[in-house]
């Protein structure tokens, strides 16, 4: 790398307090190393988790914070030991940018479960420098946590796959739920949920969308290809689903009862939780015991699984349903996302935005 070992300047949009309001921000990237890739950001998806982080909903936010963990960019420099990438490659960066490399998850290529994982933002790198995310013009990332975007895949379509896409793909792969003919439920039709419908359908599953109202029924059935749609507040409709589903992917990020959905599962059915919820959930144990049912969680996916889902979506011709915005529309986009007013993923056109104007300088 031309400036290996030195620092580089970056411009992004950061939250400075729990109000979550983002504004231009200038900072220095961490020192580069022989295994690092210097990336010019092209675009970055907006995830619901970003809201929790910028607003300190989980009580562990550090400011200033540049969010964004569905990053697609172009390699502009590589370190002397980088073997996976060359200048000009279009690449992606997801939720984590570091791990210990020696624990059981790391040795099993499940680095997202490493207890010493390093988040792509709102964390501290091994050199003590804060990590900052993809709503910025550049990033420096260790090659281990960078993936190639398949040739011919549109960058704005690739971005949501780095979190939303792999978050759905990973548990289906891990639990052996990729065989054709299975019956699955997708609870919640947002950024993750809509990719759940598309990926499960591409695997040959019969897919039922379960939602709190019928507002998204037409879109789910006609545009996303769902086979069935059930309103969770309708007892008769929920009764119809009793003992019919092999799995439910639960993407709801707010408190909700689990009993109604456990009842929908067959023997050995799996309820897979994905929403980040900061209040306890409850359920009656007989609903689990009497069907040998499983309540599990799943967290994003590994680098290997990210590469797999990118290849799967390229092979199947799957695309995300997105709305592209400029970076100066970030605050409005976050407000709309908090109200579920997006179909189904915002992607920020970073390269086509003006980040320089009014950027505030910091000694960070």
UniProtKB/TrEMBL annotation:
Q: Which SMART domains match?
A: PKS_ER
Q: Would you tell me the protein name for this molecule?
A: GroES-like superfamily
Record keywords: Chloroplast included?
no
A family per Pfam: ADH_zinc_N
Q: Name one GO biological process term.
A: lignin biosynthetic process
One molecular function GO term is: oxidoreductase activity, acting on the CH-OH group of donors, NAD or NADP as acceptor
Its required cofactor(s), as named, are: Zn(2+)
Recall the taxonomic lineage recorded for the source organism. Eukaryota, Viridiplantae, Streptophyta, Embryophyta, Tracheophyta
Q: Which organism is it from?
A: Arabidopsis suecica (Swedish thale-cress)
Q: Which UniProt keywords apply?
A: Metal-binding, Oxidoreductase, Zinc
Q: Which PANTHER family does the annotation name?
A: ALDEHYDE REDUCTASE (PTHR42683)
Its subunit composition reads: Homodimer.
Entry similarity comment: Belongs to the zinc-containing alcohol dehydrogenase family.
Metal-binding recorded as keyword: yes
Enoyl reductase (ER) domain location, by residue? 20-348
């Amino acid at each position: 790398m031309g400036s290996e070992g030195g620092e580089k300047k970056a411009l992004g949009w950061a939250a400075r307090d729990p109000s979550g309001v983002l504004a231009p921000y200038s900072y220095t990237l961490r020192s580069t190393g022989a295994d690092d890739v210097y990336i010019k950001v092209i675009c970055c998806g907006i995830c619901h988790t970003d809201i929790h982080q910028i607003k300190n909903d989980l009580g562990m936010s550090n400011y200033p914070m540049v969010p964004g963990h569905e990053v697609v960019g172009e390699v502009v420099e590589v370190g002397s030991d980088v073997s996976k990438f060359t200048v000009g490659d279009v690449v992606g960066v997801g939720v984590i940018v570091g791990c210990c490399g020696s624990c059981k998850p790391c040795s099993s290529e499940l680095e997202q479960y490493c207890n010493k994982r390093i988040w792509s933002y709102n964390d501290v790198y091994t050199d003590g420098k804060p990590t900052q995310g993809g709503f910025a013009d550049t990033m420096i990332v260790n090659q281990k946590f960078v993936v190639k975007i398949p040739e011919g895949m549109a960058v704005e379509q690739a971005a949501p796959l780095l979190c939303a896409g792999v978050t759905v793909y990973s548990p289906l792969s891990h639990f052996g739920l990729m065989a054709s003919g299975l019956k699955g439920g997708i609870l919640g039709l947002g950024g993750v949920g809509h990719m759940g419908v598309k990926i499960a359908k591409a695997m040959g599953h019969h897919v039922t969308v379960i939602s709190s109202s019928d507002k998204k029924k037409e879109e789910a059935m006609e545009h996303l290809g769902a086979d069935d749609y059930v309103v969770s507040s309708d007892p008769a409709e929920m009764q119809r689903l009793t003992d019919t589903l092999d799995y439910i992917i639960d993407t709801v990020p707010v408190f909700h009862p689990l009993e109604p959905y456990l009842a929908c599962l067959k023997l050995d059915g799996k309820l897979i939780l994905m929403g980040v919820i900061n209040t306890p959930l409850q359920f009656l144990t007989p609903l689990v015991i009497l069907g040998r049912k499983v309540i599990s969680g799943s967290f994003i996916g590994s680098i290997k699984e990210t590469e797999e889902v990118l290849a799967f979506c390229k092979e199947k011709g799957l695309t995300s349903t997105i709305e592209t915005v400029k970076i100066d529309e970030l605050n409005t986009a976050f407000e709309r996302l908090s109200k579920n007013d997006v179909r189904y993923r915002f992607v920020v056109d970073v390269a086509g935005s003006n980040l320089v104007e009014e950027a505030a300088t910091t000694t960070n």
